[in-house]
Write a structure and sequence with these properties.
The chain is α+β, with helices and mostly antiparallel strands. The chain has helices spanning 2-7, 23-26, 39-58, 96-102, 114-123, 196-202, 217-224, 251-258, 263-270, 302-308, 314-324, 372-382, and strands at 12-17, 66-75, 81-89, 136-137, 140-141, 175-179, 182-186, 206-210, 276-279, 282-285, 340-343, 348-351, 360-363. Helix content is 27%, strand content 16%.
């Protein structure tokens, strides 16, 4: 939310899924093996391609100048890794022409773009839903497929845009897919929104949604940071066994027995690959009353902590910087990390040497029930040049 407050709502919501048919994966496994037998190769290849995708969008600016982005990595129920990404662009126009330039939800012409046609038909078609499908709930597709035909893109009200999906009568293409000898005809109603440039470069399922029209922006970030699936399980001893002691519960053993991590996620964590990333960085800023800094210590070290004195925090050093430097007085507390860097070892603010890699400040959230601390936070949001708790 600190990134959104600084740069505005995101424009693109991209989901990048691993493709086990990549030649980098298929050429590295032995005969008789599948990609699931070599999770180490799958994770390494996906990590390399994910880094290259971020570089294409952020550094090579295929969509324009990127001011900020957030990215998380998750693992599907069948184990393959996929990444959710939100990008905030600069200078974008909020109109249907801009949406058509970035996103397409139609089958390409096979004669004009044969390679793109193969990628779209193999990776970007939503399968025909039925009672046995994972997305089939309450008698309908939870993803709202098939979508209705539409001659022109229109901007949605607090939702994703309604992308152009021309019918065969209006010039839309069709594709017949054969599964076990049975043919199914697909048209533009079954195409997942995508971008032709990314599909041709990465040959994978890459969903691209224009999300600047969504007002509930917090939902987007909560969605990508929702984490893995969870379940609440109640464990009860077997009453038929005479050796069970009802008074003893090994909670640690119960937790280990119930926790499940797939092979792909396990290898990803073993390699210490990051599960999330963001740019720019966000610096958390302490908010506390005078002489009420948070102190963490182990048993038996209380006397040493008291003798050491009050710890220096980002807030106390902010006051000292304002008192010693007139330049610092022009910035609010939450703006301070954009112009000063926090030295964790020496516990003090230093002038930022480079303007690149701007860091955003975020004060800890304070509930109104906390009284004076809440009002202190409000004052720090609206008063510049504060030199002490007494102002």
């Amino acid at each position: 939310m600190a990134i959104v407050c600084r740069y505005g709502k995101p424009h693109l919501f991209i989901t990048f899924t691993c493709n086990v048919q990549w030649p980098e994966i298929q050429s590295s496994i032995f005969e008789g093996q599948t990609a699931n037998d070599r999770p180490d190769i799958v994770c390494r290849v996906f990590r390399l391609k994910l880094n290259e995708l971020i570089k294409d969008i952020v550094k090579r600016q295929i969509f324009g100048t990127v001011m900020a982005y957030v990215q998380t990595v998750e693992f599907q129920k069948r184990g393959l890794p996929h990444a959710h990404m939100l990008f905030i662009l600069s200078g974008r126009q909020h109109c249907w022409q801009e949406v058509d330039r970035l996103v397409c939800a139609e089958l390409p012409d096979q004669n004009v773009h044969p390679q793109l046609f193969d990628v779209v038909t193999s990776c970007m078609l939503h399968g025909v839903c039925g009672p046995g499908s994972a997305c089939f709930k309450d008698g309908r597709c939870s993803k709202n497929f098939p979508k209705p035909f539409r001659r022109q893109t229109s901007m949605g009200e607090d939702s994703y845009p309604l992308y152009r999906r021309r019918s065969p009568e209006d010039g839309g293409k069709t594709f017949t897919k054969y599964v076990r000898g049975q043919g199914t005809v697909f048209d533009n109603r079954w195409v997942v929104p995508c971008n032709a440039c990314l599909l041709l470069r990465y040959n994978a399922h890459i969903s691209v949604e224009y999300c600047a029209s969504i007002k509930a922006v917090k939902y987007l970030y909560k969605y990508i940071f929702k984490g893995h699936d969870r379940a609440v399980v109640s464990l009860t001893p077997d009453k038929t066994s005479l050796t069970v002691d009802d008074t003893v519960t090994d909670e640690i053993k119960n937790y280990i027995d119930c926790r499940y991590i797939g092979a792909m996620e396990a290898v990803w964590r073993i390699f210490h690959f990051p599960l999330q990333d963001r740019h720019p960085a966000v610096q958390r800023l302490d908010v506390h009353l005078e002489h009420q800094q948070r102190v963490i210590f182990q048993d038996g070290q209380a006397d040493a902590v008291v003798a050491k004195g009050e710890p220096r925090t980002t807030l106390t050093e902010f006051f000292k910087s304002n008192a010693a430097d007139n330049t610092a007085k022009q910035y609010f507390y939450h703006e301070f990390p954009e112009h000063y860097t926090w030295n964790q070892s020496s516990k003090k603010w230093c002038h930022r040497q480079r303007s690149e890699g701007c860091t955003i400040g975020r004060m800890y959230t304070i509930h109104p029930h906390q009284g004076d601390v809440y009002y202190l936070r409000l004052m720090l949001l609206h008063v510049r040049g504060v030199t002490s708790f007494q102002w």
